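Researcher: I'd like a structural prediction for the single chain below. Treat it as a standalone chain; there are no partners to consider.
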Amino acid sequence: MPGQQWSWRLLSMALVGILVKAKGQPPFPAFLLFHVANLPPMCWLVAHIFGPRSRSVLVLDPPMPDPHLTEIGRNVVVGNMTSIIAHTQYRDRFELRKTVIEDDVMIGAHALIYSGCTIRRGAVVYGGSIVRPNTTIGENEAWGGVPARKIKDLPPLD
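Model: Treating it as a single chain, here is the predicted structure.
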C-alpha cells in the first residue's frame, strides 16, 4: 500500500523534526530528549537519519560535530565533555575523515578525538588526552597525554 508507506515516512520525518527543534527550545525539557531518543523505536529512527553509527547507548551525549562520519561500536564508554570530531582544520586546508571507535573502548572525560582516528577493541584513552588526526590506537592499548601516546599494553578482554 503506497499510501500507508508515505504516511509512515511523513510521520517519522515529522517526529524527527520535532525532536531536533525541541532539543534547542527552552520550554521543552531537553535533558529528556536525549534519553527518549535512545529508546526503541526512536533510537532506530534518530540513529538512521542523523548518526552517529553506533551500537551503544551514549549516556552523556558527547559533543560530536560530525555524527554522520563517526562510527561507534558496542560497550563504548565515553567520558563527560569528550569531543569526537571527524574534521580537522589546518592552516591551508580542511580535512574530513571518518572516525571509528570499535567495541569495548573506554574514553576518559575531556578527551579530544580528531578526524581519521581508529580506536581498536579494548583500548583505553585517558581523560584529558588529545588524540591527533589519523592516529590508530591498537587493541588493548592505553593511551594518554597531550598529544596522546601509547602508555602501556592492557590484558586482553575475555
